[in-house]
């Protein structure tokens, strides 16, 4: 590792400590959720926040937009939401001299951080329109390509409880999310702190810690961060073991498994996790910690395994223990 890269990593680690401290002023508890959301953004990817209503998912996205210095928009997805409602549309305008011309009006997707609230309530056409933007960072309207601002990230939310009137996300779109971030209920101490902080007169003010240009530079630096051969082999072993192919012990339980994009997500994610912990390089513990967020939405159990009561997270934990000799993060 060069001295210049070493200095960049150390400086970035210190800046990220300030980012986490600023986020913690508004989002109490949920440290794991905050770190996974930050890791997804640092890796240049998108995150799917899955949790019951009222667990500060919207607050988290708004806070990250402010602290990271990003232009953020929020879209409430509904069954009648059309692609043009998020992409924008061309409208015919009449000038004072009577001439007419089409003008493109940008939709809310033209931002740097998009919160897609309850994404699974939108219909397939709208989900497909979002798919291109998430993968290609541009959209096509009226046959013309329009680039999205840089950086561009989507943090989507999904309610796992109420499924009536929803459209399950297709596997191709799920694969575009770097992590699935499960948002659980806070423990008693955190909930007490939330209660006191949010029902009083004081309201913590947030200040930007990074700018969009600094975030882009940090994302580029992350890709130059060294990864040891043992970590690379562990990523390959884990991802390949989660596929229903001959020779895998878990084949009898898996209907479909993760592709190479899962290995790419782990490769970027372990670097981001090490950077957030102010370390110079990732280790096997980072792979174990990110196994569930990376794999859980990229694989599925077959009917026989579900009938036997097998849980996907438990299966992933078994794969981590078998191939890494470590326990997966709960």
Automatic annotation (TrEMBL):
CDD domains (alphabetical): AAA
Keywords: ATP-binding, Nucleotide-binding
Gene Ontology MF terms: ATP binding; ATP hydrolysis activity
AAA+ ATPase domain sequence ranges: 43-187
Highest taxon listed in the record's lineage: Bacteria
Family: Belongs to the MoxR family.
Stated name of the protein: MoxR-like ATPase
Lineage: Bacteria, Pseudomonadati, Pseudomonadota, Alphaproteobacteria, Rhodobacterales
């Amino acid at each position: 590792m060069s001295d210049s890269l070493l200095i960049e990593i150390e400086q970035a680690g210190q800046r990220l400590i300030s980012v986490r401290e600023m986020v913690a002023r508004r989002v109490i508890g949920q440290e794991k959720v905050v770190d996974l959301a930050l890791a997804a953004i640092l890796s240049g990817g998108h995150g799917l926040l899955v949790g019951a209503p009222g667990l500060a998912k919207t607050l988290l996205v708004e806070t990250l937009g402010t602290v990271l210095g990003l232009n953020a928009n929020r879209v409430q997805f509904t069954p009648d939401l059309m692609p043009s409602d998020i992409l924008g549309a061309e409208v015919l305008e009449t000038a004072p001299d009577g001439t007419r011309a089409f003008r493109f009006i940008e939709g809310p997707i033209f931002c740097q951080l998009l919160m897609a609230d309850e994404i699974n309530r939108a219909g397939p056409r709208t989900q497909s329109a979002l798919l291109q933007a998430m993968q290609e960072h541009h959209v096509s309207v009226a046959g013309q390509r329009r680039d999205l601002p840089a950086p561009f990230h989507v943090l989507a939310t999904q309610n796992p409880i109420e499924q009536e009137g929803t459209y399950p996300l297709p596997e191709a779109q799920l694969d575009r999310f770097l992590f699935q971030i499960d948002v659980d209920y806070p423990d008693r101490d955190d909930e007490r702190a939330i209660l006191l902080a949010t029902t009083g007169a004081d309201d913590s003010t947030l200040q930007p810690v990074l700018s969009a240009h600094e975030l882009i530079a940090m994302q580029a630096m992350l890709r130059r961060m060294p990864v040891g051969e043992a970590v690379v082999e562990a990523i390959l072993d884990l991802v390949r073991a989660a596929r229903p192919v001959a020779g895998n012990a878990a084949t009898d339980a898996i209907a479909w498994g993760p592709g190479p994009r899962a290995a790419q997500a782990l490769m970027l994610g372990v670097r981001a996790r090490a950077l957030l912990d102010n370390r110079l390089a990732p280790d096997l513990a980072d792979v174990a910690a990110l196994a569930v967020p990376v794999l859980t939405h990229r694989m599925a159990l077959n009917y026989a395994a579900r009938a036997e009561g097998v849980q996907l997270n438990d299966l992933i934990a078994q794969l981590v223990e078998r191939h890494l000799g470590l326990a997966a993060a709960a």
